[in-house]
Amino acid sequence: MNYSEITLLGRERGKYYAIAAIGLAVIGWAFYGSLIAAAALVLLAIPGEKYYKKTLVRKRKARLNSQFKDLLISLSASFQAGRQMRESLAEAEVNLKLIYGDDEPIMLELRDILRRMGSGGESEKDVLYDFSIRSENEDIMSFFDIYFACLSTGGNMSKVISSSVNVLQDKMYIAKEIETMVAQKKYESKLLVLLPVAIVMLLKLMSPGYLAPLYGNFVGVVIMSVSILTLAVSVLWSDKITQIEV
């Protein structure tokens, strides 16, 4: 699985285009008062798919990061019991199956790792490094770097891994706290973006004559286009500033 790319399947892609088309059509009708303009605005759903995919990629990476924390807890317990990495991963798969569904990222990765290390005949180092690189996750890369460094130097594996797990867990906890605080701001930013659209729709439905001077003329089209562009920029900007990495 490549965590930096995502392919929308038939049903999921259809759902995206249905929602995007309806939303853009409503905005086009409300801001321009024209079905032709509404139909033209629907075409923006095509380039919008790229932004939607980026959002899904971020969410999938966030899920993997959160689930990896539980994997670390299981691995730490197994190492303290004297088990090796392969045994620890097999035990972790059993433990995490009680928490996550089979289609969750961490479960897919564990099954793939165990298969490749078992019947696939690949080395432990190659398989785990491949996972860490594909994840593009600093915490996952750091953990396996520490593990293999300890393995090659003959250090106290249980103590080093336990210490590393505690450090990574603290970092993940801080990241989770920041995410919780930012979530409220994300919700507020979405409301602020939807509010102008709701006001325009309300005026168009309740008092059509109020917005009539803005429809059917060049000046009105420019004003409404600038308004839509401003909303689009605010969406992208708010999304960018609320992405905080730890």
List the helices and strands and how they pair.
Elements: H1 10-32, H2 35-42, H3 45-80, H4 85-96, H5 105-117, H6 124-135, H7 138-153, H8 157-206, H9 208-211, H10 218-241
Helix pairs in contact: 1-2, 1-3, 3-4, 3-8, 4-5, 5-6, 6-7, 7-8, 8-10
Structure summarized in a few sentences:
Helix content is 80%, strand content 0%. It has helices at 10-32, 35-42, 45-80, 85-96, 105-117, 124-135, 138-153, 157-206, 208-211, 218-241. α6 runs antiparallel to α7 (138-153).
> What is the CA-based Rg, rounded?
25 Å
Counted beta strands: 0
Assembly context of the chains: single chain
Give the tally of structural domains.
1
Broad structural category: mainly alpha
Q: What is the chain-wise order of helices and strands?
A: HHHHHHHHHH
Low-confidence stretches are: none
- Our measurement of the CA-to-CA distance between the termini, rounded to an integer number of angstroms, reads 24 Å
The outline comes out as elongated
How would you characterize the largest beta sheet?
A: none
Helical content, roughly?
A: over 70%
The fraction of residues in strands falls at under 5%
Mean pLDDT: 85
* Individual helix count: 10
Your description of this structure?
The chain has 246 residues and is mainly α. Helices cover 80% and strands 0% of the residues. Helix 1 runs antiparallel to helix 2 (35-42), helix 3 (45-80) packs across helix 4 (85-96) and helix 3 (45-80) runs antiparallel to helix 8. The model has no long low-confidence stretch (mean pLDDT 85).
